[in-house]
């Protein structure tokens, strides 16, 4: 697979580490009343779809950026690559 | 009619006209005492033990494709019980004991071959860890022998002992480990279950569950609804998708694991050898091919093929451990989709839906577990209580803080 990095262009997946479902950047609020349940679900439970899947990839052997990659788990086709930073900012997080 | 040497001779003398199909191809009935979803090794074993150990004859196994078309037909055939943790080791040792009596129990030649499994170590710390693991194995009733460098050299002189980075310092050997013929395991269980009255229904995909008032009463299938007093799901690889039909989310991701076979060679490997410094394991099939594999590709996938970086990584491990393997040509490689659970250990448990039971999350170690998995899942489905050797394999163990994390990698499936 080739990941088309938004800043660096096409890169081989051997340069990356996959962390898993992109839900991991949506960390629950630890002050919420039901934080225990939310953290359990967030950390351990997965939708695990056959088809389009958003996941986090870390460019360890490159610029060490975090990417949100939208990929088809049935075909390996990569449909979209975004910087995780941009995804978080679009949700009103970060500065 | 049973299989025997006498039968083979008789059939040979009469033109082999007496052989019959090994199992029936029945139409599904409208109702069963128990339905097992998934006609792989674990599902078929479950049905067999439901019939033999618990006297349930009115059982069906529903398989989406053909029998044994899933992971039972895609693995590297290794059987062993060399685990460490108390939630795991007694279970795998029970599986090993069932392997040892399997062919007699099934009247089927599954080519169980106890040639031994050798794990190599490359440092003092690793040897200490293996000494501890060996003791854990012995405490569960398994066998384990800690070998020094010369002991390993006598057994496998072809290994790279003087590797500059990872010299071999010894190994943990389980003499009772080995290999079994994976397809024959499925066929043997299918035939033995069929002979006890179990209906094995192929080309029958489960498309939903009949849940009435929070209680599972059966399944919807492509061949019509089938009612059942209890439903067990053993579809590892597709667990998330099937259990989502019942509204459940699982602590499981689907990943691809690749495996490889070389051209046929004369006997070179005495048993199974695993590399301790990287992830590589190899054995030799009865046809002579070296069967080997290594790490997962590490990302969610349902495509039954992997990618080249892992091929390279596996072959590097092989070359570092056993340089002579570089002269062999790889004939075939393939990828199987496995459930990777959050702690690397399986789940055999009830679900929040009454009457619905789940067996999955085998990561890439499901084959060796086939007999005990079926045994314990049958026990759970028949009695409603977990079998003692599988009691720690809970579905809610992450919520209660009782994971079984052999690797110590935390909730990261692609590291287990």
Automatic annotation (TrEMBL), chain A:
GO terms for biological process: tetrahydrofolate metabolic process. Transmembrane segments: none annotated. GO terms for molecular function: sarcosine oxidase activity. This is Sarcosine oxidase subunit delta.
UniProtKB/TrEMBL annotation, chain B:
Residues 35-78 form the Rhodanese domain. It is an enzyme of class 1 (oxidoreductase). SUPFAM superfamilies: FAD-linked reductases, C-terminal domain, FAD/NAD(P)-binding domain. It comes from the Bacteria. InterPro entries: FAD-dep_OxRdtase (IPR006076), FAD/NAD-bd_sf (IPR036188), Rhodanese-like_dom (IPR001763), SoxB (IPR006278). Its main location: cytoplasm. The keyword Transport does not apply. GO terms for cellular component: cytoplasm. GO terms for biological process: tetrahydrofolate metabolic process. Pfam families: DAO. It catalyses: sarcosine + O2 + H2O = formaldehyde + glycine + H2O2; sarcosine + (6S)-5,6,7,8-tetrahydrofolate + O2 = (6R)-5,10-methylene-5,6,7,8-tetrahydrofolate + glycine + H2O2. One of its GO terms (molecular function) is nucleotide binding. It is found in: Cytoplasm. Keywords: Cytoplasm, FAD, Flavoprotein, FMN, Nucleotide-binding, Oxidoreductase. Its EC number is 1.5.3.24. Its cofactor is FAD; FMN. Belongs to the SoxB family. NCBIfam families: soxB. This is Sarcosine oxidase subunit beta. It comes from Minwuia thermotolerans.
């Amino acid at each position: 697979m080739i990941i088309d990095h938004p800043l660096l262009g096409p890169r081989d997946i051997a340069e990356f580490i996959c962390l898993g479902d992109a839900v991991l950047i949506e960390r629950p609020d630890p002050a919420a009343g039901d934080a225990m349940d939310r953290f359990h679900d967030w950390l351990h439970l997965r939708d695990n779809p056959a088809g389009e899947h958003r996941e986090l990839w870390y460019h360890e052997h490159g610029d060490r950026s975090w990417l949100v990659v939208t990929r088809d788990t049935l075909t390996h086709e990569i449909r979209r690559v975004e910087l995780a930073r941009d995804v978080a900012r679009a949700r009103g997080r970060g500065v | 009619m049973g299989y025997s040497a006498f039968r083979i001779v008789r059939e040979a003398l009469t033109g082999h006209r007496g052989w019959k199909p090994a199992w029936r191809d029945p139409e599904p009935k409208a109702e069963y005492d128990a339905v097992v979803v998934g006609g792989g090794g674990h599902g078929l074993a479950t049905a067999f033990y439901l019939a033999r150990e618990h006297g349930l004859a009115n059982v069906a196994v529903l398989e989406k494709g053909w029998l044994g078309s899933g992971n039972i037909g895609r693995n590297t055939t290794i059987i062993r019980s060399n685990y460490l943790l108390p939630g795991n080791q007694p279970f795998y040792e029970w599986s090993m004991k069932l392997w040892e009596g399997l062919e007699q129990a099934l009247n089927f030649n599954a080519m169980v071959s106890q040639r031994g499994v050798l794990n190599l170590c490359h440092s003092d710390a690793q040897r200490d860890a293996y000494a501890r693991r060996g003791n854990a194995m012995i405490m569960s009733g398994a066998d384990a022998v800690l070998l020094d460098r010369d002991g390993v050299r006598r057994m496998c002189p072809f290994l790279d002992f003087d590797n500059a980075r990872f010299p071999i310092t010894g190994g943990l050997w389980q003499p009772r480990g080995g290999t079994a013929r994976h397809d024959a395991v499925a066929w043997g269980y299918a035939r033995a279950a069929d002979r006890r009255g179990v209906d094995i229904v192929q080309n029958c995909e489960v498309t939903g569950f009949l849940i009435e008032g929070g209680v599972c009463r059966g399944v919807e299938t492509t061949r019509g609804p089938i009612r059942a007093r209890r439903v067990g799901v053993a579809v590892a690889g597709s667990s998330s998708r099937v259990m989502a039909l019942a509204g459940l989310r699982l602590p499981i991701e689907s990943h691809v694991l690749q495996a490889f076979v070389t051209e046929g060679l004369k006997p070179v490997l005495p048993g199974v050898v695993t590399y301790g410094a990287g992830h590589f394991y190899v054995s030799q099939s009865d046809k002579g091919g070296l069967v080997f594999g290594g790490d997962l590709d590490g990302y969610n996938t349902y495509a039954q093929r992997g990618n080249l970086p892992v091929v390279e990584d596996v072959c590097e491990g092989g070359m570092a451990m056993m340089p002579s393997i570089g002269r062999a040509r790889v004939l075939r490689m393939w990828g199987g989709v496995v459930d990777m659970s959050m702690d690397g250990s399986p789940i055999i448990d009830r679900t929040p839906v009454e009457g619905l039971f789940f067996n999955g999350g085998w990561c890439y170690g499901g084959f060796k577990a086939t007999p005990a998995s079926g045994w314990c899942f049958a026990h759970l489905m028949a009695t409603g209580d977990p079998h003692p050797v599988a009691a720690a394999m809970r579905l809610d163990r992450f919520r209660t803080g009782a994971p079984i994390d052999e690797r110590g990698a935390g909730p990261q499936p692609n590291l287990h």
